[in-house]
Amino acid sequence: MKANFIKTLTIPFALMLCECATVTTPIGGPKDETPPVVVNTSPKQNEKNFKRSVVQLNFSEDIKLKDAKEEIIITPSPGKDVTFTTKGKLLIIEPKEGWKENTTYSIAFREGVQDITEGNPVENLRLAFSTGPTIDSLSISGNVKDALTEKIPENITVAIYTSDTFDIFKHAPLYFSKTNKEGNFRLDNLKSDTYHIYAFDDKNKNLKVESQNEQFGFIASVIDLKKNVNRLIIPLNRIDTRKLKMNKPRSTGDIAFLTFNKSVIAYQLQAKEAGLQIPNSFGDDQNEIKLMLKTMDLDSVLMRVTASDSLLQKIDTTVYIKKGKNQKIDEKFTAEVNDPVLEKETGKFTFSITSSKLIKSINTDSITLELDSLVKINFKQEEFKWDTIHKKIELKTTIDKKLIDIEKNILIKTGKNFLETFEDDSIKASSKSVNILSIEETGTLTVEVKPNTQENFIVQLLSGDKVIQSAANKKSHTFKYLEPGNYKIRIIIDTNKNGKWDYGNILQNEEPEKTIYYKDREKKFETPMRANWESSITISF
Fold first, then answer.
1. Among 8-17, 130-139, 402-411, where is mean pLDDT lowest?
2. Does 13 map to a domain?
3. For residues 312 and 198, what is the distance between their CA atoms, to the nearest angstrom?
4. N or C: which end of the chain has fewer CB within 10 A?
């Protein structure tokens, strides 16, 4: 009886241990770093005449899905309503609308299928099959890059279309892929045809370009796909393609505002009243024009307004500008001297002034360069370069090198009345130290360029994203007075020879001008510079 009693207790205890083992992850041991492996699929890879309603993949271990609708990409699209189901080691894919007849499908799984224990994604898994007697096998691959920077945009949608009536802002593509972390993309199992290709940051996941808040890019030329096409480069840019519109003018006291639905790059104002000049500038941004009506004797004036955006879309209209009944709201006035720099060996002296309001004049007696307590230098009115609409003033002049002493603390001083605005503002007197550059404390970088066929190009030296110096169409140029730090070298292919980088214009099928960044042997974009250091690099393009 005793033995039977022991046996009766042992059996349920053993069952309890077995049951627990089926639901508990083992503790300890090496971390699982092995991704799931496909054991078999239905259909098989490159199978033809597939007629079933579902696709099944069986893996070597239990799996889970991660963002399946984003990560598992089926081209051409079988429709938005696709069901992804897992049962242990099995993945089932079923489109509600079914698979179209005589169509080659390609499924890229990216990181959508993972093991349960550690989330290891299946590596480089693709499945292709055809519902007809033939399977298409051509491909298009390449890279997506930022049009103006060296940064690599991630998870960008790359799409193709064949119809001339297709509109990337209105229609969703059937064939698309997404870039990886290196910006690379690939579209497989394509038939021989002519294609247009574009890329975009599909933030709202509707497979349509929303130019107001999404980057996009395209290749202007048509791809005649008769064999595999590789190494395409699609530059991404952010351009608002909406039609340019202007809102109804509004006024507050002696200030009037013209507001647009997006940024404009240039504008002109012309009063119908002969000889009437109304001071104006951009407002807080380039979506707005600010007009100063204080000097206008009339209560209203008919004004012709012309403006254009970066795509050269234009507005040409007339509006009545009226003085407002309400008192104007006081805005804080800010203005300061930016980046005063003096080169010791050359005596070149530069600085700029950025103002929050339109400047009427500069009192040159109230802004001085103080070399010491006895030596003070004033500037002439004609030495200042005015950009009224952007409320910016620059000065470039040369100081007698005999007066410059590197040991002294040179200051640029401004009095409270050195600026006069159209709103009679004043600002506190201030002083700022001048950055004195000398050969001993700065570096020199010589850039040799070897263009292939391009005759017009611009070599730019950048600190961060700011252009420090530039040179046009020079196969050898030396950048001097570089403060210790890291710099980047960018080359702009100046296709239209206007001396600046251009956005491109999708409405006219014009790509952005090509940019090239220098990378060293270690694939680094930044070139270090130290004091009293000379360096040189060579760039071929």
1. 8-17
2. no
3. 21
4. N
Residue 448 lies in a domain: yes
Domain boundary pick from 236, 269, 300: 236
pLDDT class of 27 with cuts at 50, 70, 90: low
At residue 370, φ and ψ (nearest 5 deg) are: -100, 110
Range of the domain at 405: 335-437
200 CB contacts (<8 Å, ≥6 apart)? 156, 157, 159, 168, 209, 214, 215, 216, 217, 236
CATH number of the domain enclosing 97: 2.60.40.1220
Residue 31 within a domain: no
**pLDDT tens-digit readout, 237-256:** 999 999 999 999 999 989 99
pLDDT for the residue 29:
58
CA distance 100 to 98: 7
Domain match, 348 and 277 both: no
* CA distance linking residue 152 with residue 179, whole number of Å: 10
Per-residue model confidence (pLDDT) at position 130: 98
- Digit-coded pLDDT (tens) for 179-216: 999 999 999 999 999 999 999 999 988 999 999 989 99
CA distances from 299 to 3, 125, 253, 295, 321 (A): 113, 72, 11, 11, 8
pLDDT digits (tens, 9 = 90+) for 468-521: 999 999 999 999 999 999 999 999 999 999 999 999 999 999 999 999 999 999
Number of domains observed in the structure of the chain? 5
Tell me what the pLDDT averaged over the chain comes to: 91
* 28 pLDDT above the threshold of 60: no
Q: Do residues 346 and 414 share a domain?
A: yes
Q: What does pTM read for this prediction?
A: 0.84
Question: Whole-angstrom Cα distance, residue 175 to residue 166?
Answer: 13
Whether 346 and 427 map to the same domain: the answer is yes
As a three-state string, the secondary structure of 458-513 is EEEEEECCEEEEEEECCCEEEEEEECCEEEEEEEEECCCCCCCCCCCEHHHCECCC
Q: How many CB atoms lie within 10 A of CB 240?
A: 17
Q: What is the mean pLDDT of residues 80-107?
A: 96
Same structural domain for residues 83 and 97? yes
- Are the C-beta atoms of residues 247 and 261 closer than 8 Å to each other? yes
- Residue for token digits 């007697």? 133
For residue 84, count CB atoms less than 10 angstroms from its CB and return exposed for 0-12, middle for 13-18, buried for 19 or more: middle
Domain boundary among 109, 130, 151: 130
Distances (CA, A) of 457 to 267, 278, 472, 502, 505: 28, 39, 6, 12, 20
DSSP string over 308-374: E-TT--EEEEEEEEE--SSPPPP----EEEEEEEEETTT-EEEEEEEESS-EEEE-GGGEEEESSSS
Judge if 231 and 259 occupy the same domain. no
Nearest-angstrom CA–CA distance, 140 and 195: 10
Could you tell me if residue 168 is inside a domain? Answer: yes
Q: Are 278 and 271 in contact (CB under 8 A)?
A: yes
Residues 97 and 150 in one domain: no
